[in-house]
Amino acid sequence: MSTTSSSNGLLPTSMSGRHDDVEAGGSDRTQDEHHEQLEHDPDDPFDLDNTKNASAQSLRRWRQAALVLNASRRFRYTLDLNKEEHYESRRRMIRAHAQVIRAALLFKLAGEQQVGAVASSSTTTPSASTGNFDIDLEKLVSMTRNQNMSSLQQHGGVKGVAEKLKSNLEQGIEEDEKEVIDRKNAFGSNTYPKKKGKSFYMFLWEAWQDLTLIILIIAAVTSLALGIKTEGLKEGWLDGGSIAFAVLLVIIVTAVSDYRQSLQFQNLNDEKRNIQLEVMRGGRTVKISIYDVVVGDVIPLRIGDQVPADGVLISGHSLAIDESSMTGESKIVNKDQKSPFLMSGCKVADGVGSMLVTGVGINTEWGLLMASISEDTGEETPLQVRLNGLATFIGIVGLTVALVVLVALLVRYFTGTTQDSSGATQFVKGKTSISDIVDDCVKIFTIAVTIVVVAVPEGLPLAVTLTLAYSMRKMMADKALVRRLSACETMGSATTICSDKTGTLTLNQMTVVETYAGGSKMDVADSPSGLHPKLVALISEGVAQNTTGNVFHPKVDGGEVEISGSPTEKAILSWAYKLGMKFDTIRSESAIIHAFPFNSEKKRGGVAVLRGDSEVFIHWKGAAEIVLACCTQYMDSNGTLQPIDSQKEFFRLAIDAMAKNSLRCVAIACRTQELNKVPKEQEELDKWSLPEDELTLLAIVGIKDPCRPGVREAVRICTSAGVKVRMVTGDNLQTAKAIALECGILASDTEAVEPTIIEGKVFRELSEKEREQVAKRITVMGRSSPNDKLLLVQALRKNGDVVAVTGDGTNDAPALHEADIGLSMGISGTEVAKESSDIIILDDNFASVVKVVRWGRSVYANIQKFIQFQLTVNVAALIINVVAAMSSGDVPLKAVQLLWVNLIMDTLGALALATEPPTDHLMHRTPVGRREPLITNIMWRNLLVQSLYQVAVLLVLNFAGLSVLGLKQDSNHAHAVEVKNTMIFNAFVMCQIFNEFNARKPDEMNVFSGVSKNPLFVAIVGVTFVLQILIVTFLGEFAHTVALSWQLWLASIVIGLVSWPLAVVGKLIPVPRTPMSVYFKKPFRKYRASRSA
Fold first, then answer.
1. Residue 500 a catalytic site member
2. Choosing from 500, 788, 844, 890, which is the catalytic residue?
3. pLDDT digits (tens, 9 = 90+) for 248-273
4. Pick from 894, 875, 908, 866: which is nearest to 1027 by CA?
5. What residue spans carry the Basic and acidic residues bias annotation (predicted)?
């Protein structure tokens, strides 16, 4: 994949052929050379550019290579590598001992007095009947769990069970709140007790696990004991007590931040689990939460749905269930009257049907399983892995520096060259007491350990989790629910989006606007005038029976008819209703004996309908040109059958004309079938393929689905951001082209030539190599199958693209899984599609997809801001302490002060910078390069400018501070040194506060733009400033500071303030195009290559 730096140098691109870095000047280097320098390094455990389907071995490898001080905190949000094994063992146990586990759980709930809807009836001894119902809860649970056919027959089959549950197999239970509450009280609710999340005290305990903090506490206790022994309680507690208090403050602030983060993830997980589904209540199809399903509910099942509760099949056609989530066996099980039991948590793999709910919540195996396992919210993200690598490198440098400081201070101390603040030599051989030596050594050791605390950026990898938690919460408001953390940041690297048409680029609000029936175009699309009653009757029967939708007539006169189903189904049902279709009458007068549910491969669906006892009609409905090709005759306006040959061209032209007007074309056709050719046995009937030849064309309808408002602008934003939008649709190529032109995906008619627009069939038939070549040029793919979409994704990824794909159907699951980012639709998407996706677009709107791209780029940009800020602090703090320790045997920044700086840098800095909202500026860049270094050349320039300035100022203050600050005249030398050291500490913190603004905009001159839109940033900077005043002014003995005059405060602020104009000047310095990391890595690679040669 060709990668070049972006025009701003901060967020490089992964697109090929992009413009050069304008700040870098000219470059003769080819893109291939650049790619070579940024290629994958197999020896680097942290070089993982995609964690979506990464192996457990590679994930385990980077964890073992990371330098970690607090493993429980650092790896809290990483994937549990033993999760599958644990899940499988729990599933096997529940399958084997479900009754015992359920009883134990009920007992526990009763003991905790959580006798809510889940267990209120179950905690008592079951009686002969439960409430007002004629069947016992325990018998129901036992029958379903053991899949006991004889027990079902004893109750009178599914019809008998429904009667005992006071439910209607066609209309469901009454739509009445009291009815639902009664059922919850009698049979439980469809919820299960969740495993409690970690308490705040657990987060405190985990924050305490940091090795350096434990060492500091031990050192503080030692110092406290020695201080009290030598100086008494009044003065002796200060050194040790101040360090202990500072460490406790760090632990509490860390725990509070982590706890808030965990609550955000918990809320998002609750949102993910809350599935919306349709049930039949009072004859109406209503949408409810999965938690509101009750025993007795009648639930329609369609391909891609999750079975929401245990139940018994009422009726079904080609219904196949994937039970692998419960049985562990990856095979599809066909469901019919011989095998009617359905298990909660399983998925509908094929077909349609309806079920009667017989068990909910912890009365199901799925409920018991969910109650016994904790949901694993952990997952590596590529950025998280890379930041662990960066933190490890910085940590090693920090440890080395701390060791050098420790040795230097100890050598200087024991050679008698270290003096205290009054100028007296601290160690005199033979005179200094053992307790003083130990006390002084503890202080030296404490300083070295504190340097490790500051130097090892333990919070750096966790900043990713912080910014992702913030982004995920905000993305919910932008109608995007993130299921996988890594997708959030990978979206920032997306170079192409393969989008569906229907519902994503269009509104999914369909109406029939044109009709061809009786051999000609109808003047009014939904008027029966001019059509023979026989033709209207056949159309009505075909529409009423060959549908998964429903028409509900309210009992109250004058009430509006309610039509439910998919948008296409609703449009056709509404059209047929206006033609005079009597939905309920047709369904009662004829029966479906076999069905072929709509199939996205064949683009059509059909049913065989038995009229009375002698007549069988087969009705088909689907893509107009495909159904038309199967027709040999049509019915004219007189109700007479005519050969279609002479009219076929007329119908083709009609389809083309409607498609060019952005209409979705659907044809309705039928044929008769001799009864003796229909299989009699159920097994043979289930395997019977409906005849699809010699059909009679009844009607062709053109359905209008308008473009979404704002979609054209969203496509324009994507294009300007270097993200190519491709449309992949099952619709006619002409319809696809018309919508693409309307949305701005195609700029003009002249672009609409092959392979820019292509049919799925044509693309499918190319060789793999040809597909890779053609994929680059495809903008619109029409009449595509889910497999065509998968092939396109694979070809684009092989070309180096980072691919985002939208999908809503079950068959889209492979493409969603294969893509770098799978985006499923929240409204029209099936549960299978949602589970295979990384992000759910809650409003099905393409504009929301573009917002996800902005957030993805924002995540990466915010992390880079934090890195720049943190490294500036690291470099300055380490250099000043090392130089001072080597030269004078003392350090100006004491342990408590360094811990405060660490708090500013790690927790508060992350909160301030990692929660910056996305800006439009992010969409003026090309996509983030996944192989590009985290620290870009612009960041190196910025942090070196600021670090060198801070080091220079602090060193001047350290070595010439008494003169510069006019303190030489002070008669009290010890006080003068304390003022100087306080000034160094104060100036250093002021530099960090002002530099925090610079870190907001690493590549922009105006660092204040948009600052008012981030109140958290302003609040943190304000709180930091106020706390600094309090520490210096009122906590002198505690923090080793003295109160400063207003002149010195002004000087400190001016020193910090200089960082702003300095940042502007620094941004005028050009940077080389080649990343600095390339130069760092070259010697190591050459060394490794020579070793392996």
1. yes
2. 500
3. 887 887 788 778 777 777 777 777 77
4. 908
5. 29-40
